[in-house]
Amino acid sequence: MAVDTAVVWFRRDLRIHDNEALLEAADAEEVLPVYAFDPREYGEREFGGEHSFRYEKTGGIRTRFRRESVADLRERLRERDSDLVVRHETPERVVPAVAAAVDADAVHFGTLPTPEEVSVENAVRTRLRGIDVTPSRHWTHTLYHLNDLPTPYTDISDTYTGFRKSVENRATVRDPLPEPDLPTAPVGEVGAGSVPTPTDLGVDEVEYDDRAALRFEGGETAGTERLDRYLFEEDRLREYKETRNGLLGQGFSSKLSPWLNEGCLSPRYVNAEVDRYERERVSNESTYWLVFELIWRDFFQFQFAKHGGDFFGRGGIRRRDDIDWREDDAQFGRWTAGETGIPFVDAAMRELNETGYQSNRARQNAASFLANDLRIDWRMGAAYFETQLVDHDPASNYGNWAYIAGVGNDSRDRAFNVVKQAEKYDADGEYVTHWIPALSDLPPTKVHAPWTLSEQEQAEYDVQVGIDYPEPMVDLE
Ligand SMILES: Cc1cc2nc3c(=O)[nH]c(=O)nc-3n(C[C@H](O)[C@H](O)[C@H](O)COP(=O)(O)OP(=O)(O)OC[C@H]3O[C@@H](n4cnc5c(N)ncnc54)[C@H](O)[C@@H]3O)c2cc1C
């Protein structure tokens, strides 16, 4: 009798735990896991739509994280006597070719709600049907399962509070699924292939920066270690709500976002570990708040399922046409380089450029400055974040940007007073001086507004505004 064979196409679910696609595939007699580095995800491209600016879709830092994640997945699969086929080619070529080579009956994979991911999935499914292989999709990346929402996703509330209350009151988070026992992988029939280098992918190789909040190393192994460290080893969750607006260091927030977004960690597994922490350590507002933030993540995922490509329009899902968005390459260049002359914004952008990470507070201010103070098309900022962020996710990134730019899921004015924010959240100026050493000698009362220094003060603090550090590019008064 013919052997029953399944292929698992890994996408942004690079893990063995709580992975429905892998678990269901494991019922077959042979299972072949596959990952495709899609060339369209790397290198420069046009933003598209009515906008012609170009940007790099995946920069060096996220590329490194992803390569490490794929390598870790392969190692974990090999430890379980399985393997991972790796290719550098579009999924719609790789997946059907591999499925045909091993005579697979089915291909299992995680489905995603964002437009590009949907179109890749559709291309793969069409080709699989053409060769008589059954595509089997699974919802693997949110806290609440799509099928457990109290209403069809097309009817969910467009406000976070409405959405959160509806799921908290009328849905339950499922337990994480068990790890499967994996049957043999018929890898010999196709060849395992190697993880492409950054050069193969057309991306600059980058080193880790010692000033980073955390060394973000890709993979399920590092992701589960990070979760354990934050919750149990360092016992930080008990004070998360008070510390989460921090700016410096690894411990003020969970730093789980890169692992969640490449799927090295499942949000249901994080939730189960929070439950365990609540049983074994403490249950308080902080422990709840981490889940509250994971629901924000879900909110944007389901919002994209509902509104799709409308999120990428200049006027957003609210189709606002009353804002005069500008394009100004010189000003945009100063913002990306961290040379605006506003220290809080510049520190945030320098941190992003060097490490791929920014705290939520830093992101809000950097984004608000571009969108609300400079009024430069917010999508250019979002595209820049897409290149640089180690934890980029299309729904979280464009959803948050649209929110701050006033074209997303909130009709209130979301403009931040960046100097006031700096004085509140970086009262001692430590964050700003960490990233802008030229301002190191300034006292906390002056560090967030160096343009107010007199000639005499500039001499005293060893900084010449306009020479050592730029003049502000706009008058924030
Ligand atoms: C302009 C802008 C762009 C952003 N782009 C992204 C992005 O591309 N990817 C991304 O994961 N987050 C994004 N965020 C949300 C948030 O800033 C990060 O999730 C958070 O800073 C990651 O650090 P952490 O894991 O320590 O977060 P924690 O404070 O520990 O939160 C725990 C988890 O909750 C989720 N979360 C928290 N806040 C948000 C939020 N506002 N929206 C969605 N999920 C949230 C994340 O998965 C995060 O890992 C963006 C925010 C802004 C303002």
Written overview of the protein:
- The protein is α/β, with parallel strands linked by helices.
- The protein is globular, with a radius of gyration of 23 Å.
- The mean pLDDT is 96.
- It has a 5-stranded parallel beta sheet with strand order 5-2-1-6-7. A two-stranded antiparallel sheet has the order 3-4.
- It is 44% helix and 8% strand.
- The longest helix is centred in the middle third of the chain and has 23 residues, at 285-307.
- It starts with a strand and ends in a 17-residue tail after the last helix.
- α3 (91-101) runs parallel beside α4 (115-130).
- Bound molecules: flavin-adenine dinucleotide.
- Flavin-adenine dinucleotide (FAD) binds next to α9, α11, α14 and α16.
- The site of flavin-adenine dinucleotide (FAD) has 29 residues, from α9, α11, α14 and α16.
Structural class determined from secondary elements: alpha/beta
**CATH architecture heading of the largest domain:** Orthogonal Bundle
Hey, roughly how much beta strand do the residues contain? 5-15%
Strand order of the largest sheet: 5-2-1-6-7
What is the C-alpha radius of gyration, as a whole number of Å? 23 Å
Q: Helix coverage percent of residues?
A: 40-55%
Report the uncertain regions: none
Task: Indicate the topology.
Layout: E1 5-10, H1 20-25, E2 30-37, E3 44-48, E4 51-56, H2 60-79, E5 85-88, H3 91-101, E6 106-110, H4 115-130, E7 134-138, H5 160-170, H6 198-201, H7 220-233, H8 240-243, H9 257-261, H10 267-280, H11 285-307, H12 329-337, H13 343-355, H14 360-373, H15 378-388, H16 394-405, H17 418-425, H18 430-435, H19 444-447, H20 455-460
Parallel strand pairs: 1-2, 1-6, 2-5, 6-7
Antiparallel strand pairs: 3-4
Helix pairs in contact: 3-4, 7-10, 10-11, 11-16, 13-14, 14-16, 15-16
